[in-house]
């Protein structure tokens, strides 16, 4: 029997059980479960890994509890700048977008760039122009407004700080998905709203192929979450693939080394999800928690938040 597998994440960081209400915990777990079911149903029906990760990430982008799409944080000037990337492991084709505003689903735009342009990464107003040419839906600023996000921004403005989206009372995060389909093809997708109060059109690792997102049928598919500057410096997603390709590491060995050794030595906090062509799944992180879910074949869905 051919194996299928899908894993998703909703961010990693200081996620403590003591700071989570039962209601909020259920909200996160329900959101993860719904997204994993959407993507897994596509795989069960013979759909491609690319289709599965797009739909799973789109579902997470549409849920305001996560820092992506509708739930994106505020930038220094009070707007929302979103990044996303998608990579197909069969062809090594990739599409990515950075710093876009008002695009409802950045992951859909990333795929349109992959399929309908000769480029990999488009940014800002140019990416938005391309989205309009492809007739993708845009939303007004009010669609992306969230009161808690706004209060985060007000606090950051008052202290003139740029912050990761991990606070002591509520947690949000980058979202991502990785999958292997019935044909053994891999895909990875990542989407984020970036950092609260970020300036200068800062871009993190999520839309950078090889840093926050990577897929290759010969090795693995990876989607990362955490402090993007460290993930870019360590070229985390591609490094996992390289360890498998050139050193013969297993998926678990490669992920553990990069997340728990290389990143830690740099001072980087976060995690990643990964899958290989044999449907092995790894959910690896060096933080207090990571919103995560996975499902392999007809096995029960794995849902977790904390580091336990």
UniProtKB/TrEMBL annotation:
<dbReference type="GO" id="GO:0006508">
    <property type="term" value="P:proteolysis"/>
</dbReference>
<dbReference type="Pfam" id="PF01112">
    <property type="entry name" value="Asparaginase_2"/>
</dbReference>
<feature type="binding site">
    <location>
        <begin position="202"/>
        <end position="205"/>
    </location>
    <ligand>
        <name>substrate</name>
    </ligand>
</feature>
<dbReference type="InterPro" id="IPR029055">
    <property type="entry name" value="Ntn_hydrolases_N"/>
</dbReference>
<dbReference type="GO" id="GO:0016811">
    <property type="term" value="F:hydrolase activity, acting on carbon-nitrogen (but not peptide) bonds, in linear amides"/>
</dbReference>
<keyword id="KW-0378">Hydrolase</keyword>
<keyword id="KW-0068">Autocatalytic cleavage</keyword>
<feature type="active site" description="Nucleophile">
    <location>
        <position position="174"/>
    </location>
</feature>
<dbReference type="GO" id="GO:0008233">
    <property type="term" value="F:peptidase activity"/>
</dbReference>
<feature type="binding site">
    <location>
        <begin position="225"/>
        <end position="228"/>
    </location>
    <ligand>
        <name>substrate</name>
    </ligand>
</feature>
<protein>
    <recommendedName>
        <fullName>Isoaspartyl peptidase</fullName>
    </recommendedName>
</protein>
<feature type="site" description="Cleavage; by autolysis">
    <location>
        <begin position="173"/>
        <end position="174"/>
    </location>
</feature>
<keyword id="KW-0645">Protease</keyword>
<dbReference type="InterPro" id="IPR000246">
    <property type="entry name" value="Peptidase_T2"/>
</dbReference>
């Amino acid at each position: 029997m051919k194996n299928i597998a899908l894993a998703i994440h909703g961010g990693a960081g200081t996620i403590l059980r003591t700071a989570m209400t039962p209601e909020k915990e259920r909200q996160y777990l329900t959101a993860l479960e719904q997204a994993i079911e959407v993507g897994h149903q596509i795989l069960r029906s013979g759909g491609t890994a690319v289709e599965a990760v797009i739909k799973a990430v789109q579902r997470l982008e549409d849920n305001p509890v996560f820092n992506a799409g509708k739930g994106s944080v505020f930038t220094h000037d009070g707007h929302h700048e979103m990044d996303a990337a998608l990579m197909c492991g069969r062809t090594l084709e990739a599409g990515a977008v950075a710093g876009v505003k008002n695009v409802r689903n950045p992951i859909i735009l990333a795929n349109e760039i992959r399929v309908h342009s000769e480029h990999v990464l488009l940014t800002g107003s140019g990416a938005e122009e391309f989205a309009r040419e492809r007739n993708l839906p845009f939303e007004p600023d009010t669609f992306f407004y969230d009161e808690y996000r706004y209060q985060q921004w007000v606090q950051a403005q008052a202290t003139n700080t740029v912050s990761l989206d991990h606070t002591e009372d509520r947690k949000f995060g980058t979202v991502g998905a990785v999958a292997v389909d019935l044909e053994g093809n891999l895909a990875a997708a990542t989407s984020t709203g970036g950092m609260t109060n970020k300036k200068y059109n800062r871009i993190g690792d999520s839309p950078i192929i090889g840093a926050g997102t990577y897929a290759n049928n010969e090795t693995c598919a990876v989607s990362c979450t955490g402090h993007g500057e460290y993930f870019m410096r360590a070229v985390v997603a591609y490094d996992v693939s390289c360890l498998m390709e050139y050193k013969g590491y297993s998926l678990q060995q490669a992920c553990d080394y990069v997340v728990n050794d290389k990143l830690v030595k740099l001072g980087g906090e976060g995690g990643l999800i990964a899958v290989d062509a044999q449907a092995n799944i790894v959910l690896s992180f060096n933080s207090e928690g990571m919103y995560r879910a996975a499902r392999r074949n007809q096995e029960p869905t794995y849902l977790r938040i904390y580091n336990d």
